[in-house]
Design a protein that fits this description.
Length: 216
C-alpha cells in the first residue's frame, strides 16, 4: 500500500480530534506538482545549493515562488506538530499524576481499582498513539522531501531532516517515560498472576501502533 493511502487510513481510524493534526501529505504533493521539474544539475551546482542550505538563512535563494510555498508549508507543518505534541505531553503529565493520586486513595477498594485500571489502559493506549503520531509524521516528511529533491534537483532533505530531529514532536523521551510509568502502575495494581478476569477485555482495546513505512 502506498504511504499516502496508508496515512489516510490511519487518520480515519485515529481519535477524531487528532485528525487535522497529522501531516498534510496530500496538500504537499499538490504543491510539489506545481513546481516545474528541473534538469539534474551538475555536481558543482548541487554542492553550491547544499552549502547555501547548510549555512542557514539562505535556503530559499534561487527558489521559485512555488518552491518557497512548498517549504513554507513544511515549516507550518512542523509548528503544527510541535504545538499539538507539547500540548498532549503536558496534559498527559497532569493525567498521570491524577491517576496516581486516585490509585493511592483506592488501595483497599477493589472495584474502584478495576475502574482505574481500565482508565490507565486507555490512557496508555492514547500515549502509544502519540508515539505513533511522531513516527508517522516523520516518515511522511522524509518521503515528501525525497520527492522534492528528486523533482527540483535540490538537496533540501538532509538539512531539513536534521532540523526535524531537534523538534519537540520528534523528541519522545518524556513520552516514553510516561508510557513506562503507566505500565509499572498496571503491574503493581494487578500482577499478571493475580489479574482479575473482569478486566482482561480492557487490555484488548489498545489501538494498533504500526507505523506506515511503505513506499509512495
Amino acid at each position: 500500500m502506498k504511504f499516502g493511502k496508508s496515512l489516510s487510513n490511519q487518520i480515519e481510524e485515529t481519535l477524531p480530534e487528532w485528525r487535522d493534526k497529522f501531516l498534510s501529505y496530500k496538500e504537499l504533493k499538490k504543491r510539489l506538482k506545481l513546481i516545474e521539474p528541473k534538469q539534474q544539475p551538475c555536481d558543482e551546482e548541487r554542492a553550491q545549493k547544499r552549502r547555501r542550505m547548510d549555512d542557514g538563512g539562505g535556503e530559499r535563494e534561487g527558489m521559485t515562488a512555488e518552491e518557497v510555498d512548498f517549504v513554507k508549508l513544511l515549516e507550518d507543518e512542523l509548528e503544527k506538530f510541535n504545538a499539538f505534541f507539547v500540548e498532549q505531553e503536558e496534559e498527559y503529565i497532569i493525567r498521570l499524576k491524577e491517576l496516581q493520586d486516585r490509585v493511592a486513595k483506592a488501595k483497599d477498594r477493589k472495584d474502584e481499582m478495576i475502574r482505574i485500571r481500565k482508565e490507565i489502559v486507555d490512557f496508555h493506549g492514547e500515549m502509544v498513539l502519540l508515539e505513533n503520531y511522531s513516527a508517522l509524521n516523520y516518515t511522511g516528511l522524509v518521503k515528501i522531501l525525497k520527492k522534492y529533491d528528486k523533482r527540483t534537483g535540490a538537496l533540501l532533505r538532509l538539512p531539513f531532516i536534521q532540523k526535524v530531529l531537534q523538534q519537540p514532536f520528534f523528541t519522545t523521551d518524556l513520552l516514553y517515560k510516561l508510557v513506562k510509568e503507566c505500565e509499572r502502575m498496571l503491574d503493581q495494581m494487578f500482577p499478571a498472576n493475580q489479574a482479575p478476569s473482569s478486566i482482561e477485555a480492557a487490555d484488548r482495546i489498545e489501538p494498533s501502533t504500526s507505523s506506515a513505512t511503505d513506499e509512495v
